[in-house]
Amino acid sequence: MKLTVEHSGNGVAIIHAEGKLNMVSAAQLREEVAATVAAGSSRLVVDFARVDFLDSSGLGALISGLKAARQAGGDLRLANTSDQVKLVLQLTNLEKVLSTVDDASTAYANG
Amino acid sequence: MSGSAGGRSRILVLRIVVTLTLLVGLNYIVWRWGFSLNWNAWWIAIPLVIAETYSLIDVSLFGMTVWKSQPRPAPPPAPEGLGVDVFITTYNETVELVENTARAAIAIDYPHKTWILDDGNREEMRLAAEALGVGYITRSSDWKDRPRHAKAGNLNNALMETDGEFLLILDADQVPSPRILDATLGYFLDERVALVQTPQLFGNVATGDPLGSQAPLFYGPIQQGKDGWNAAFFCGSNAILRREALMQLGLMRYVSEVEQNVKDALSRADRVLATARRSDVAGSPLVAAALNDIGEALSSARARLAAGEYVGMVTYDLQQRVDAVAQQLVEIDLSALALDLAALQSGEEDASSDAARTPGDVRLLREISPLASLESVQELIRSIDVDRSDEAQPIMPLATISVTEDMATSMRLHAAGWKSVFHHEDLAIGLAPEDLRTMLGQRLRWAQGTMQVLIRENPLVQKGMTLAQRLMYFSTMWSYLSGFAAIAYFGAPIIFLCFGILPVHATAGEFFLRFLPFLVLDQLLFAIAGRGVSTWRGQQYSLALFPIWIKAVTSAAANVFFGRPLDFAVTSKTRQDSGPQWGLIKIQAAVVVALVIATIIGFTRLLFGVGEPVGTFVNLVWVVFDIVILSVLVPAARYRGYRPEHEETHEIDR
Question: Which residue windows are coiled coil (chain B) (predicted)?
Answer without folding.
Answer: none
